[in-house]
Amino acid sequence: MASCLISRHFALSLHRNVRLSAPACRYVSKAAPKTQQDYDYNGPSMKTTVPGPRSQNVGAINFFCNYEESRGNFLVDVDGNRMLDVYTQISSIPIGYNHPALLKLMSNPNNLSTLVNRPALGILPPENFPDKITESLLSVAPSGMSRVQTMACGSCSNENAYKAMFIWYRNKERGNAAPVDDDLTSCMINKSPGCPDLSILSFMGGFHGRTLGCLATTHSKAIHKLDIPSFDWPIAPFPRLQYPLEEFTRENAQEEARCLEEVEDLIVKWRQKGRPVAGIVIEPIQAEGGDNHASPDFFRNLRNIARKHGAAFHVDEVQTGGGATGKFWAHEHWGMDDPADIVSFSKKLLTGGYYHKDELQADKPYRIFNTWMGDPSKNLLLAEVLNVIRRENLLEEVTRSGKSLMNGLYELQAQYPGILSRARGQGTFCAIDICDDATRNSLLLKARDKGVLLGGCGDKSIRFRPALIFKEYHVHMFLNIFNDVLAQHK
Amino acid sequence: MASCLISRHFALSLHRNVRLSAPACRYVSKAAPKTQQDYDYNGPSMKTTVPGPRSQNVGAINFFCNYEESRGNFLVDVDGNRMLDVYTQISSIPIGYNHPALLKLMSNPNNLSTLVNRPALGILPPENFPDKITESLLSVAPSGMSRVQTMACGSCSNENAYKAMFIWYRNKERGNAAPVDDDLTSCMINKSPGCPDLSILSFMGGFHGRTLGCLATTHSKAIHKLDIPSFDWPIAPFPRLQYPLEEFTRENAQEEARCLEEVEDLIVKWRQKGRPVAGIVIEPIQAEGGDNHASPDFFRNLRNIARKHGAAFHVDEVQTGGGATGKFWAHEHWGMDDPADIVSFSKKLLTGGYYHKDELQADKPYRIFNTWMGDPSKNLLLAEVLNVIRRENLLEEVTRSGKSLMNGLYELQAQYPGILSRARGQGTFCAIDICDDATRNSLLLKARDKGVLLGGCGDKSIRFRPALIFKEYHVHMFLNIFNDVLAQHK
């Protein structure tokens, strides 16, 4: 394995010699314009089936990777297979592998101290931390939010966001008076009123993480939830839109109205049974649950329902945030000045955390707290990722690539109506349904053996989650290979 | 702030010129032997009160730090105050600030890829990851455990450990048969039998984290739990030992027997009310809750009670693990071959996670899972920390320093019986009680202004949590200053 490790200097000079060569465009007649990305590879290169002989395939492990040799949009495995990565570590790699800007950043000796001295951020932050947060996370704060709390991962982000909503809700109920003795003593033994019977309303098909609080709002697959105790919290239906959208305008509007009505009914019902809804949590696109979309109108109405019933509105952008929809946050597509009370993130942001409105700030120190509360070394990476996104206009690139990807999916869907349906997406955050689960899984493996790494979601969907540096050129590379896979599919 | 940033090369050459000078030993008559630690400072140096004018003091923030200038046992703040750190970022810095071995590691270009390409470890691990885990975490695996699961933080570690216990318990109940349809459908809506009414038994005064599952087992302070919904899980009393231990042998044995009896009663009671105890979780020393100790016999008996009732036994070593008790794991002091079914860790281990016995392995992939499942860059740091611990015999140092610290605390307690009581500890993981909360807080601030950073725990205790490189020399430095603070206390 030592031979796989290459020095940075050698690596950089090596990759200067890698230039893009013209791809063979079997599917799309016109060759897509190539962009100079001298650290990226020019295409997949497969030496074995995957997993190959040097890999292992146990439990959930797909195969073992050679991250040193991976570049840009290409993930290299231990057998030297180089795959176009349209899954990017479950949508968590923002600007590809070994981006030169990040390598440079991490080799800057000025950053060493941040790498080796992880602080307890909540009590002893580094002197420049507020500035760093202003430059990074707050520079992309959702509309109406000027506060952010970092956390270590997506689940912790949502758990703490839920806590912030509960604290806010109970303070309202107390009229912002201090808790009484009964609150303070009963909470120590997990009892009401100190530990109140409040709830979070979530949606069937939603995914918000796997720790016990998050899991009570996750309803995408049984394997996530089986055998784990949960809370009696309300679960609303998420709209099941029919595609193509333009043919089902009326039906889809009715479906969304039905779901919103159910949300209100549940809020009333849970209030009546003594478990008031303190917050509503929703993904702008249900990702893990099958890339389920709803209209901006649906979300605007839902946000109003939350407000009307005194519940906080939490938009979970763990998977949608960071630019893949063509906007930095997917909720920006709703066109609202006041889209949410809380927006949580992780994955492409490289650190977990949540933004919140001023009133969702906990009233006392140590209520939202843990030892690390994030990690300044991840913030360092994020700040540079944001620089690259701006410098390289990556949101525009995503919008452009996303259009090509959707057009290609529409064409493939027209060509293979027995296999493909319901092509949908925003930016490059796209998905398509396959006729059944077995075919979906077979296509995923065949595509992988041809050098395209994809992920599934929901019962029978394929989700596309490329990095933000996925250009039209890469879209066509993917479409060519996927077309071959479909053509050979029996 | 840029002027505070120093290049690595400059930093190393600068600190070679810093040598320890003989301390003025006001408290201890004989001077402690000095150890050559050429990157450490020779003592505190205070320029202002803390927080000083360049710091801010909002919410839980104590003050802002200059981590670039901090070295070894000394934390430097933004006003240039240099404090002997006996709290170490809530016990999470294993070998001091800017340890040369860690600076060297992080400046090795071979490690750059690990810093910039964070994988989804559960599905696409780096090729050398199993070897790295074997060299690092598994090289210090608790007795009887050969499996480890990394996680991002302490709370996630415990949440997932609880899930592993629930899954194991339900599989036992099903006779390892596959779940039936009713299990799979009911779990999607948070209902039994899919989401069963199982419980985790915890102890009053325990702290296991602040996410909703963990929080249901945390009972140290009301501020952690107030307003957050919880589970109806059993809570047993933790022994309240009387000190000095040798004077209260009989009373303490009775107290421990009482608590164990209560544990068994609770297990029976919760089984009867349909919420069987799937696991028992306990800290070897209740840290956040006030540094509460129990005898090895107590833990051995408790482990047997868990076995007898078919519950898993989870030892939470998030704060005690990593060497501060003089053994790598605090449970080693119990002298058992089979101390636990699960041991969780974080903090000084730099990554979260938990060890478990083979039978606690989830039966299917994706049951214990999340996007990152830890972070190889933290594992890299941990491996080097373990090398340093071995190379520098730090566990022996801790034992030696711990004895000095305890002797010093006993002497101070004899000298100030109106203020100090119940000195207790293992290794340097020590604590002492102060007469009341207000005096405790006043002493903490006075010590800080004299250059010693300490933390509180429980109602009125001070906890000592130095790094593993805290030598006898530093113990005496602390005792001198603390003695001065006590002498001046009105």
From TrEMBL, chains A, B:
**Alphabetically, which GO biological process terms does the record hold?**
gamma-aminobutyric acid catabolic process
Q: So which cofactors does this thing need?
A: pyridoxal 5'-phosphate
Is the keyword Metal-binding assigned to this protein?
Answer: no
* Its job: Catalyzes the conversion of gamma-aminobutyrate and L-beta-aminoisobutyrate to succinate semialdehyde and methylmalonate semialdehyde, respectively. Can also convert delta-aminovalerate and beta-alanine.
Could you identify this protein by its name? 4-aminobutyrate aminotransferase, mitochondrial
Q: How does it assemble?
A: Homodimer; disulfide-linked.
Name the family the entry cites: Belongs to the class-III pyridoxal-phosphate-dependent aminotransferase family.
**Pfam families in the record:** Aminotran_3
| Keywords from the named record | Aminotransferase, Neurotransmitter degradation, Pyridoxal phosphate, Transferase
Q: Which InterPro entries match?
A: 4NH2But_aminotransferase_euk (IPR004631), Aminotrans_3 (IPR005814), Aminotrans_3_PPA_site (IPR049704), PyrdxlP-dep_Trfase (IPR015424), PyrdxlP-dep_Trfase_major (IPR015421), PyrdxlP-dep_Trfase_small (IPR015422)
User: Mind telling me which PANTHER family this protein's record contains?
Assistant: 4-AMINOBUTYRATE AMINOTRANSFERASE, MITOCHONDRIAL (PTHR43206:SF1), AMINOTRANSFERASE (PTHR43206)
Per UniProt, what is one GO molecular function of this protein? (S)-3-amino-2-methylpropionate transaminase activity
Q: Which GO terms describe its cellular component?
A: mitochondrion
**CDD domains xref list:** OAT_like
Q: What is the catalytic activity of this protein? A: 4-aminobutanoate + 2-oxoglutarate = succinate semialdehyde + L-glutamate; (S)-3-amino-2-methylpropanoate + 2-oxoglutarate = 2-methyl-3-oxopropanoate + L-glutamate
EC number of this enzyme: 2.6.1.19, 2.6.1.22
Q: Does the keyword Lyase apply?
A: no
